[in-house]
């Protein structure tokens, strides 16, 4: 939730910068000013990195680049911790991970399930690679890198697949394994942010074709989807183990 709040603050600052620049350029048509005059500026309008260049490449502003770096780093941390705990479990089946706090919040139960090795090896190993790649992309964007449309589509598809996989793992965790892993939950949340704000960026620049009304609505109310998504996840967790949670009150 901290990352989502930071994104909203960043967008508010971007909006103010866009309005200030618009006032300084009253002679220019609206479509030539630096960015749309809405609360939806995901990219930092203080630079031109997010504009389409003559070579057809597209960059991003500071907001999206930092989001990818921060969420990628959190995902890498989660994958690293889970990997270390998995190694300890292989050495000693009686090992209890630090995040196994009670019968419900039990990382050990998750790690020892068959769902923890969907591809024939521990899932966090794939996370180490995927989140490392996201960090690299975010750092490249911060340094001014620009990518072609197919690259942005590839990033969008990759984050979509990651999100679908995380949602499947969430359903398995809640309704099959009947345990919750805090590091896994962190992974679900950050993957949602990666996917959604990459989608917002691609809609903004026409990389994903969409009606103008839909594009403007997504840009104006970009925060609604992750907030609702997080709310649904919280409700599922609360209702699944409501008896246990209520006993703690």
In words, what does this structure look like?
This protein has 249 residues and is an all-alpha fold. The protein has one domain (58-232): de novo design (two linked rop proteins), CATH 1.20.1440. It is 65% helix and 2% strand. It is built from 9 helices and 2 strands, in the order H-E-H-H-H-E-H-H-H-H-H. The protein has helices at 2-24, 62-91, 107-111, 123-142, 149-177, 182-204, 212-220, 224-240, 242-247, and strands at residues 57-58, 147-148. A two-stranded antiparallel ribbon has the order 1-2. Helix 5 (149-177) runs antiparallel to helix 6 (182-204) and helix 6 runs antiparallel to helix 8 (224-240). The chain is globular, with a radius of gyration of 20 Å. The relative contact order is 0.14. Mean pLDDT is 86; it is low at 28-41 and 44-48. Residues 17-35 have a biased composition (Basic and acidic residues). This is Membrane protein. Residues 61-202 form the Vitamin K epoxide reductase domain. Keywords: Disulfide bond, Membrane, Oxidoreductase, Quinone, Redox-active center, Transmembrane, Transmembrane helix. Belongs to the VKOR family.
Name the strands of the widest sheet in spatial order.
Answer: 1-2
Indicate the radius of gyration in whole angstroms.
20 Å
Write down how many β-strands occur, each being a DSSP E stretch of 2 or more residues.
2
Q: Are there runs of 5+ residues with pLDDT below 50, and where?
A: 28-41, 44-48
Termini gap:
23 Å
CATH class: Mainly Alpha
Individual helix count: 9
> What is the domain total for the residues?
1
- Biggest sheet character: 2 strands, antiparallel
Subcellular location: Membrane
Transmembrane segments: 64-83, 125-143, 150-170, 176-197, 218-238
Family: Belongs to the VKOR family.
Domain Vitamin K epoxide reductase: 61-202
């Amino acid at each position: 939730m901290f990352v989502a709040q930071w994104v909203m603050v960043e967008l508010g600052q971007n909006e103010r910068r866009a309005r200030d620049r618009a006032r300084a350029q009253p002679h220019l048509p609206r479509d030539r000013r630096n960015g749309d005059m809405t609360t939806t500026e995901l990219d930092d309008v203080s630079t031109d990195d997010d504009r389409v260049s003559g070579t057809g490449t597209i960059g991003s502003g500071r907001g999206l680049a930092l989001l990818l770096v921060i969420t990628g780093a959190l995902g890498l941390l989660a994958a690293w911790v889970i990997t270390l705990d998995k190694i300890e479990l292989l050495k000693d089946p009686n090992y209890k991970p630090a995040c196994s706090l009670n019968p419900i919040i039990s990382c050990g139960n998750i790690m020892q399930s068959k769902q923890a090795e969907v591809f024939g090896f521990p899932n966090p190993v794939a996370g180490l690679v995927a989140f490392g790649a996201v960090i690299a992309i975010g750092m490249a964007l911060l340094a001014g890198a620009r990518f072609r449309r197919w690259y942005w589509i590839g990033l969008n598809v990759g984050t979509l697949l990651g999100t679908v996989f995380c949602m499947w793992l969430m359903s398995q965790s809640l309704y099959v394994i009947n345990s919750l892993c805090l590091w896994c939950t962190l992974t679900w949340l950050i993957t949602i942010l990666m996917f959604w704000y990459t989608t917002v960026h691609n809609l903004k620049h026409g990389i994903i074709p969409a009606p103008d009304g839909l594009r403007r609505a997504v840009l104006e109310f970009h925060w609604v989807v992750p907030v609702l998504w997080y709310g649904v996840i919280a409700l599922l967790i609360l209702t699944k183990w409501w008896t246990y949670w209520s006993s703690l009150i």
